[in-house]
Amino acid sequence: MINYLIIGISYAFACVVQPGPFQAFLFSQSLLNGWRKTVPLVFAPLITDGPIIALVLFSLTKLPPIILQVLQCAGGVLLIYLALKGYKTWKTFHSRKEPAITGQQNLFKAVMVNFLNPAPYIGWSLVMGPLLIKSWNISPVNGITFLTGFYSSMIIFSIGMVMLFAATRSLGTKVNRILIGVSAVVLFLFGIYQLLTGILA
């Protein structure tokens, strides 16, 4: 049981620290809204991963490649759209007050970014799915421990990253504006990458 807990924690850490669309989105939101408004967004995978897990486990290793392609293209378009919004924020940041955006709107964006991100589908198809099936077949307790270790650790690590990102807000308006611009560029690059990967796959 302990070994599956360690595996879950380790894989969660790798997922959080590896740059990706969802991490870039959290980074931009941390800069714009601070850690208090961004922390709830780290729970988005708990909303999106349920259907993903069910789909992958139901059709493990038989998921049509076209689905991943469509998801990558859709995710790329979404990230480019968010990057353009970030660019507009960067242009007017010097006269910008606290964003008039609701937590529900931010959470919806976070859910969409994660749902259209192919990484969870690939991760559950190639890594997490087989591990969950193997651990569950040995003992349901092992499977539950594996899932608990993964998601609890992912949330904790993500909160830490959000607070680290948000700490850069104290560096001053000019630095913060630069970082917002950087986050918009990162989102745009991830969007282009996902879009091209989906088209050329």
Report what the structure shows.
- The structure is a single chain.
- This protein has helices at residues 2-17, 21-38, 44-58, 65-91, 103-115, 118-138, 140-166, 173-200.
- It is built from eight helices and no strands.
- The chain has one domain.
- The chain starts with a helix and ends with a helix.
- The longest helix is centred in the C-terminal third of the chain and has 28 residues, at 173-200.
- 82% of the residues lie in helices and 0% in strands.
- With 201 residues, the protein is mainly α.
Label this structure with key terms.
single chain, 201 residues, mainly alpha, 8 helices
> In total, how many domains does the architecture comprise?
1
Largest sheet: none
Form type: globular
Instruction: Please write the string of helix (H) and strand (E) elements.
Output: HHHHHHHH
Short description:
The chain is mainly α. Helix content is 82%, strand content 0%. The chain has one domain (2-200).
SSE order and pairing:
Blueprint: H1 2-17, H2 21-38, H3 44-58, H4 65-91, H5 103-115, H6 118-138, H7 140-166, H8 173-200
Helix pairs in contact: 1-7, 2-5, 2-7, 2-8, 3-5, 3-6, 4-5, 4-8, 6-7
